[in-house]
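INTERNAL AUDIT FORM
Audit reference: QA-55
Scope: verify that the stored structure record matches its stored sequence.
Auditor: D.O.
Record contents follow.
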Amino acid sequence: MEDKYILQFGSLAGWPYKIAKELRTRGINSKNVVYYNKDVHDLKRNLPFDESIYHPSDSKFTIFKKIIRFIKKSSKDTKLVHYHGSNIFFRELHHLYEGKLFHKNNIPMLITFGGGDVRNTRHSRKLNPYFYVPFGFESVKRDFRIFLRHKSWNKYLKYTLCTPEFSKYMEPYFEKVFIYRQPVNLDDIECRIPDANKSRPKILHIPTEPLVKGTKYIVEAVEKLKNDGYDFEFVLKRQLTQEELYREIVDCDIYVDELRCGSHGVTAIEAMCAGKPTLTYIREDLVDNYPEDLPIVNANPDTIYDVLKDLITDSQKRHNIGEVSRKYVEKYHDIKVVVDNIIKVYEEILGKKC
């Protein structure tokens, strides 16, 4: 009989599949399950996964039955559940059925978040003047939903594995907060350090959510730089598959990720993996929470013009930052390094070897 497996539920930036796949290479039974092959908003990145619960053409009643059936089966087949971004059935009601069932069957649960599923407006705006959600009725509703979800998870879901930024949000709700770094498979992305002799750099920006990423500020800075006579190419794209995104990143000289969140996401890691100087806004209070050799070029809506100008006019600097960016990813974000840490977390939670 096959050993019970570790469930990686969700498709958050494609990393649950990467984690499950790497665990399997080490002889640890794990698989990544999603609802179906979908993406956030209007994106179609074709993120990989192992299994889906239902088909999008299924009726609502069929979807409901399949989800309940999957939860019941998982309560017998899994030894640990690792949620990525959300639990399986109604986030605000996790404690009423899904969480209670896993807990009853002695299956520990932990959760990893992506960003918007954690950042409440009140706390975020206090620490981040560029935060993308304004105060108002909609933000109050949003914060209340986040509060309800965390209170529901808090009943049976005792652990979170999250980035340094999210740890402060999570501490009131979870028994233990483990620190996590987003993984990347080094073999998936070609490393091409920017040419130190290239005079006309290519700047790339691929926003999943333009409002969140601060795209309008990037476009404004680019237009002003062009009007001021600086010579460069600017490429703005969306609706790419993950493989297409990787090819675009490899072909650029400067990657601009996001200016409003306050910490870096997985795309910034992928760009650094390709050996690119990568621009992202890191909140001042969070800088010391990252390794001291973090090579991200810190930029926000107020500084993006000057930061870009500096990199456009200094090809050697682009080259140097690209070199150390790749080394940083190899040291801290290689899927093998990340899974080493995740296994330690799993074993602490399980109280035994995976």
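Auditor finding: record pair retrieved intact. Residues 137-156 form the longest helix (20 residues).
Action required: none
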